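ARCHIVE CARD
CATEGORY: sequence design from structure
SOURCE FIELD: tokenized fold
FIELD CONTENT:
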């Protein structure tokens, strides 16, 4: 694992006399959105440990880190799920520590259902759950077909799914990476995120959403029910701990005859590291020379005023004078001004 790091966000100011114009050494600073830097090596999961639902109806041979899931869904939906499904799992112990983010990543290469070869109504699901923990059986899932994407909470009792969001969105469906992100926070909360990235253009994010699960932030039952399935429920329970990883395939056409399907995925992996945030703050710094102070204004034309309450310090490593300021919702301009001589 590479050591996570937080890049310094510094702005250098050069001394200028106040003259009513924006000096060359002034800095414009607006709202800085919270930024998370997460660097960690991916850990490949290798072949699946076993099969969950649907073992009698599909196969999942693996070659290296590639898995070709093929077969035909069972004739009837599984009890309690009300949809045809198959799954395979990895018996791993995912890192689960407060203040850490764990991301499950799966490269989806191909998916087709029936003679048409379409991926419509065939969902590929990335799931992490707490099995076999006896007191907290459930987890979180990112589900995607050709034109829908959902972020879900999974429960083992009746009506097993809570919908954090379900959207009809035509997002690229092959050669993409599906990412389920889970950040354990204090107070029993988990920030659950869904992200889709383009394998053909590394680093390009096609979709990103998140939901904070935990006490006091329960999700309601969706109305209307997605796919008209009676599996959705409101959530009034705690956030779940995590242990193992699952790939599931769902056929959301239970009223029709079962169809052949194929889902090709590879490189199921996870990365975990502590989160580091830089929230709404910047560091001003300048050469450590006497006779200057920092001024602030809302426009380049002023009025310019001395920055109130600013506490300066010396950064020996940078050989700079510096102070931290909180970014506001509007634009702010900063400059160095020469002290007035008595």
């Amino acid at each position: 694992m590479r050591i996570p790091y937080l890049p310094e966000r510094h702005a250098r100011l050069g001394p200028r006399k106040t003259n009513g114009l924006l000096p060359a050494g002034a800095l414009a600073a607006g709202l800085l959105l919270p930024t998370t830097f997460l660097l960690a090596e991916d850990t490949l999961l290798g072949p699946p440990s076993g099969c969950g639902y649907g073992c009698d109806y599909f196969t999942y041979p693996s070659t290296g880190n590639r898995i070709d899931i093929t077969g035909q869904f069972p004739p009837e939906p599984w009890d309690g799920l009300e949809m045809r499904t198959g799954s395979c799992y990895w018996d791993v112990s995912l890192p689960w520590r407060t203040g850490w983010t764990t991301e499950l990543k799966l490269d989806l290469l191909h998916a087709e259902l029936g003679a048409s070869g379409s991926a419509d109504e065939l969902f590929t699901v990335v799931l992490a759950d707490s099995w076999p923990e006896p007191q907290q059986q459930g987890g979180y899932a990112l589900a995607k077909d050709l034109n829908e994407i959902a972020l879900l909470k999974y429960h083992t009792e009746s009506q097993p799914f809570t919908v954090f969001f379900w959207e009809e969105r035509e997002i690229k469906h092959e050669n993409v990476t599906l990412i389920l992100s889970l950040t354990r926070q204090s107070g029993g909360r988990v920030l659950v995120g869904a992200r889709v990235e383009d394998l053909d253009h590394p680093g390009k994010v096609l979709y990103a959403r998140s939901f904070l699960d935990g006490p006091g932030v329960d999700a309601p039952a969706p109305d209307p029910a997605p796919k008209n399935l009676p599996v959705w429920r409101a959530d009034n329970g705690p956030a779940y701990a995590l242990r193992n990883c699952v790939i599931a395939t769902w056929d959301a056409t239970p009223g029709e005859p079962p169809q052949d399907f194929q889902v090709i995925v590879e490189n199921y992996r996870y990365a975990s590291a502590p989160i580091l945030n830089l929230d709404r703050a910047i560091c001003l710094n300048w050469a450590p020379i006497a006779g200057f102070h920092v001024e602030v204004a809302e426009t380049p034309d002023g009025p310019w005023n001395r920055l109130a309450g600013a506490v300066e310090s010396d950064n020996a490593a940078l050989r700079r004078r510096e102070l931290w300021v909180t970014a506001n919702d509007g634009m702010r301009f900063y400059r160095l001004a020469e002290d007035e001589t008595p």
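CARD ANNOTATION: Confidence is low (pLDDT under 50) at residues 1-25, 29-37. The two ends are 58 Å apart (CA to CA).
SHELF: design records, drawer C
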